[in-house]
Design brief:
By secondary structure, the chain is of the alpha+beta class. 47% of the residues lie in helices and 20% in strands. β9 (255-256) and β10 form a beta hairpin. It is elongated. The structure holds zinc ion.
């Protein structure tokens, strides 16, 4: 019975061990499979991560390599501005070529141009091209003209929207600083909207649609004498191109071994991304007042103090009038854009009642007319009158001088003639003595001959008397 029980126990133990070992084996097998699976997944994940990193590195290189597009304004039938011998489409081409040539000397930038010849392109085509080369920025080169040929200076137009506004404004700040250093007057960095409330300039509108920041650079005005010295020679247009290139290099923190320049630390102006559209200024300056500080009655100079302000776009120009606004001076630079008050001296003609008025212009060329100040008439002689008087005096002086010199000449001639005669007959003592002796001899000879004649006659008479006596 006991043996039978032991046998049964042994059988049961064997059975339990068999199942335990089977379970352990299954667990081990499962673990092995699981670890293989996990390592496979990890390997796969690593592979994906590595691939991702490779992509990331590619992106990094791409991000470092800046791509820009230069757009020489106009072309083909579209000539752009024309003034005297200058045609805008030709000028923008010279500037663009010089800009590209200069930028090619920098590392980390690829430069494309919308046109390299005289072909006509639509504004949309230019932007499509910029998009096709993945441009980081589009720079449009232009020259300006104004309706009444009165405006002068440089300006930049940017998109009124979001990041394109802030990037555009930041670059334009570099560009405008450099144009001002060249001597051009800054007309500012501005936005312009059409009647639909979107960017007015097509090139800016189409590039903003494609999310490409764009700045339209109006280098200067072709039709105003203030700006003419800046573009009147091809060399100066090339200078514009180099300046534009340097502004790009500064903005993108580029460096060039060839040029030995490094703009990696250039401090760009930070411009916050606007949450709303940046609208242009549509209102005239808020205030424009004048006060006469001094009136010089002897030369017609009038010193005027101007106080004007525009809280949207700032003050830009002023003009002045002495006939209550019937005629105005040319546009004058606002002396200090950070100050609302300044004084200037104007010239008022004599014999009129001066009525002084000033027009103050804001950044969008809108103006406000000041109060009028009436002054007493000034009876001074104008510089023209003084010059005429001087000329008259000079004429009189030259006439009297001419008469005097004529008289002097006659006297000189007479004296000279006399002197010449004197020179011809020099009276010496020997000559005088000889003449005297000759004269004395002549007198003596005449006396002797007279005596001889008289003596001869007496002798003849005596002979006749003797003959008669005989
Ligand atoms: Zn143009």
């Amino acid at each position: 019975m006991r043996n039978c029980k032991n046998k049964e126990m042994l059988k049961r133990n064997k059975f339990i061990w068999h199942h335990i070992s089977k379970a352990l084996l299954s667990i081990m097998l499962f673990c092995a499979l699981f670890s293989i699976q996990v390592s496979f997944i990890c390997a796969q994940e690593n592979e994906i991560q590595e691939e991702g990193m490779t992509e990331g590195i590619d992106d990094g290189i791409k991000a470092e390599q800046i791509v820009i597009v230069i757009d020489p304004g106009h072309g083909g039938e579209n000539l752009g501005g024309e003034y005297e011998d200058y045609t805008e489409k030709e000028m923008t081409m010279i500037v663009a070529n010089a800009m590209k040539e200069e930028l090619d000397k920098y590392e980390g930038i690829t430069v494309y141009m919308t046109r390299t010849g005289d072909q006509e392109l639509s504004l949309e085509e230019r932007c499509e091209y910029a998009e096709s080369v993945n441009a980081d920025f589009l720079f449009c080169l232009h020259f300006n003209m104004s309706e009444h040929h009165t405006l002068f200076g440089a300006e930049c137009w940017v998109s009124a929207y979001g990041e394109n506004y802030s990037k555009g404004y930041s670059f334009a700040s570099v560009e405008m600083d450099m144009l001002q250093d060249l001597g051009l007057y800054s007309r500012g960095i501005k936005t312009r909207l059409n009647n639909k409330g979107i960017d007015y300039y097509g090139i800016i509108r189409h590039s903003t649609e494609r999310d490409i920041p764009c700045v339209l650079i109006e280098h200067c005005h072709l039709d105003q004498e203030n700006d003419q010295p800046f573009y009147d020679h091809n060399e100066k247009l090339i200078e514009f191109g180099k300046l534009d290139a340097t502004a790009v290099a500064k903005y993108f923190h580029l460096s060039s071994e060839e040029l030995d320049v490094d703009y990696s630390g250039y401090p760009n102006v930070h411009v916050d991304v606007p949450s709303n559209v940046v609208s242009p200024d549509k209102t005239e300056p808020d205030i424009c007042m004048i006060e006469v500080l001094d009136q010089n009655m002897t030369n017609g100079e009038v010193k005027v103090q101007v106080s004007a302000a525009d809280y949207d776009s700032g003050m830009l120009y002023y003009t002045y009038s002495y006939d209550n606004g019937q005629t105005f001076s040319q546009l004058q630079r606002w002396p200090d854009k950070s100050s609302d008050t300044f004084d200037f001296t104007m010239q008022v003609p004599p014999h009129i009642v001066p009525q002084i008025v000033v027009n103050g212009y804001n950044g969008y060329d809108l103006y406000t007319t000041s109060n009028m100040v009436s002054l007493p008439s000034m009876d001074y002689k104008t510089s023209e009158e003084i010059a005429a008087e001087l000329a008259e005096q000079e004429a009189l002086k030259s006439v009297s001088e001419a008469v005097a010199s004529e008289k002097e000449k006659t006297e000189i001639v007479v004296t000279r003639e006399l002197t010449e005669e004197q020179e011809k007959k020099p009276i010496s003592f020997g000559y005088f003595l000889t003449v005297c002796i000759v004269c004395a001899l002549l007198v003596l000879a005449m006396t002797i001959s007279m005596l001889l004649i008289l003596g001869g006659r007496k002798r003849k008479r005596r002979k006749r008397r003797r003959r008669r006596r005989r």
